[in-house]
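Why do we bother with holo predictions? Because pocket geometry can differ from the apo form. Keep that in mind while you read this record for heme C.
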Amino acid sequence: MQIRKSGSEALFACALAAVGLALAFLPVPAAHAEFGDVVINNHSDKAGMRPVVFPHWFHRIRFSCKACHADLGFQFKAGGNDINMVKIIDGQFCGACHNGELAWAIENCNLCHSAPPGTPTQVHESTLQKLGK
Ligand code: HEC
Ligand code: HEC
Ligand code: HEC
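The structure, written out:
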């Protein structure tokens, strides 16, 4: 028990150090990311865009889980959906709502692409992250 605990704490400390290092080289202040936000970066960095911050709680209090995770087919996994702009413009994933009708449209690039460059796909401050998994 004790060994496992210190092991994960060491991993967490490493993760913190890595984040600190990354932040030290950032020319801009870190974008806002709240507890439970999902950062999606399967393609963004490679495409020269800031990674996407998906504010989960903001959406969760407005829509049922089913609306997104069943009807729109979002997998329950950070980065678990192969999302790209063609699909979004086609009305899939974020594009089912961010179409200028239900929610603001996709020309607001930096409202979604708001994470500091290099931020990996993750659930911000998740329990899993703290356990070093
Ligand atoms: C409603 C949210 C949202 C908005 C607005 C948005 N994007 Fe994206 N975009 C995403 C998501 C989610 C992904 C997938 C992120 C990943 O996996 O890295 C993505 C991926 C991308 C990618 C990489 C994949 C691909 O399609 O080539 C590019 C480039 C991109 N966006 C450019 C843009 C530009 C330019 C704009 C503004 C005209 C924009 N995005 C607006 C959510 C958005
Ligand atoms: C507006 C759409 C939307 C709603 C509503 C929504 N989710 Fe999600 N959820 C997402 C997206 C998008 C992701 C990230 C998927 C990705 O990165 O490709 C996600 C990821 C997740 C994950 C994996 C990441 C994590 O935080 O552990 C879980 C679990 C999850 N959702 C549960 C729920 C539950 C439970 C509800 C209802 C209380 C809910 N979601 C409501 C869109 C939604
Ligand atoms: C089920 C509908 C729905 C889906 C799917 C959805 N959104 Fe939203 N989103 C909304 C609505 C509605 C708002 C509030 C719009 C407003 O304030 O005018 C919003 C607001 C936001 C905001 C601003 C939050 C704030 O603090 O003001 C961001 C960022 C965002 N969405 C990103 C995304 C991304 C990225 C995806 C896909 C991974 C996505 N959304 C998918 C409906 C959705």
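Residues 89 and 95 are 6 Å apart (CA to CA).
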